[in-house]
Specification:
CATH class of the largest domain: Alpha Beta
Radius of gyration: 19 Å
Strand content: 15-25%
CATH topology of the largest domain: Rossmann fold
Distance between the termini: 14 Å
Number of domains: 2
Number of helices: 8
Strand order of the largest sheet: 2-1-3-4-5
Structural class: alpha/beta
Shape: elongated
CATH superfamily of the largest domain: Response regulator
CATH architecture of the largest domain: 3-Layer(aba) Sandwich
Number of strands: 12
Oligomer: single chain
């Protein structure tokens, strides 16, 4: 399980990020101001990635970049400061990404996954009930026996697993799995979901007027 620092001084946003990232399988550590981050780095200092607001009490997010990188913790800025000077300052000094508020949670999760993969810290094995999913080998085993999934079915399953307990729209699935962005014509998603249900036995529920959600008990 990857460990993420959530460095955000707005309590509601901090809690929302921790809740959503926790649901998708990350361990989260909420930190509310810059000095608290520096104290945490001295006492622990072990994390896989940090989401960092820029405008923080006591020590701002830009000043935290160097000490976080010194502890080999990659940084994604998540901030309301959307001016080009701030973006360039963050990215040219070593941040992996720069996301401007307001943000879509699914986009944040996708960007986190890309950075973790870049650093070799992404999760390569998932266990859901009696299923074992190995991303590097692209295999799925049910009670030890390998399931025969098509490449599209595997990618769709992985998308659902990485976003477990999160409702995904059919359009989102088309974009992520088939690399197609358009309205209508989503019947192909329904067909593949039906096949995944049949082959895996997973509880993939239909979310009315939205799409699907893989429900997993924590």
């Amino acid at each position: 399980m990857s460990k993420l620092l959530i460095i955000e001084d707005e309590l509601a946003i901090n809690k929302m990020l921790c809740l959503n990232l926790g649901i998708t399988g990350y361990e989260t550590i909420p930190l509310m101001d810059g000095q608290e981050v520096l104290d945490w780095l001295e006492s622990d200092g072990s994390a896989d990635l940090a989401l960092v607001d820029v405008m923080l009490p006591r020590v701002d997010g830009f000043a935290l970049l160097e000490p976080l990188l010194a502890h080999q913790i990659p940084v994604i800025y998540l901030t309301a400061k959307g001016d080009i000077e701030s973006k360039l300052r963050g990215l040219t000094n070593g941040a992996e990404d720069y996301i401007v508020k307001p943000f879509e949670m699914l986009e944040v999760i996708a960007r986190i996954e890309k950075v973790l993969k870049r650093y070799g810290k992404d999760q390569t094995e998932f266990v859901i009930g009696d299923l074992a999913i190995h991303t590097k080998e692209r295999t799925v085993k049910k009670d030890g026996a390998e399931l025969m999934l098509t490449p599209i079915e595997f990618d769709l399953l992985l998308l659902l697993v990485r976003n477990k307990n999160v409702a995904l729209s059919r359009e989102k699935m088309l974009g992520e799995v088939w690399n197609i962005y358009y309205e209508g014509g989503t019947r192909t998603v329904d067909v593949h979901i039906a096949q995944l249900r049949k082959k895996t036995g997973l509880n993939i529920t239909t979310v009315p007027k939205v799409g699907y959600r893989l429900e997993v008990e924590e």
